[in-house]
Fold tRNA pseudouridine synthase C.
Amino acid sequence: MSDAEVSFPAPAAEPPLELLYCDERLAVVNKPSRLMVHDSKLARGEDDFLADRLRQQLGKPVFLVHRLDRATSGCLLLAFDRDTASFLGKQLMEGRVRKDYLAVCRGWPAESAFTIDHELDGGPGKPVKKPAITHFQRLLTGELALPGSGFDTSRYALLRCQPQTGRFRQIRRHLKHCFHHLIGDTSHGDGRHNRNFRIKGVHRMLLHAEGLGFDHPDGRRLTVQAPLDDEFNKALALFGWQLPDAAQA
């Protein structure tokens, strides 16, 4: 075969994004970990964005109602017209959207339920600090047979989290503030504990937007949940954890 006849397979197409709920006005998509939501100063040369994929997949404009960090997976709310986006955005601003996250942190928080009320700035270039409140529930605890801090094992906990406000990387930074760093967080986490999970084959940040509860423009109250991906489930399996239902929190 001559050089002119050599052919190469086309790159594999990305699978469609999973729509957890969709109607003519809005949708909730299950955002994969490691996929950026939209282009920004943090993109650093990236050219693959969830918003662009969705516009192509659905064949119409999309308006993002909120954001998730690149490394975070789970429920992402969007609208298909400006009026719906404004209606949903107002709920967010007024704290009427229920947001539940799952997180794996280092250590065992002493209390089964606790709140972090600690001001945060707006991230790079936004030094002004604003109120930031996150509620946490300790769901499960476990240990890995990896030494650390003078002990033969390392302790971890599964948390459910509800950010009352929406500051930059709020859950991640609040967990750092209380010394229960989020596993897999390379910006605000603990490198030794991140390595423990990489040794066990878990390479993602363990933060997942588990559920959203909000009012639809037609008056219904919608509750949407996103299943965990295989890698997050692999982390839970290290401890033999069975995920409690959100209604039990």
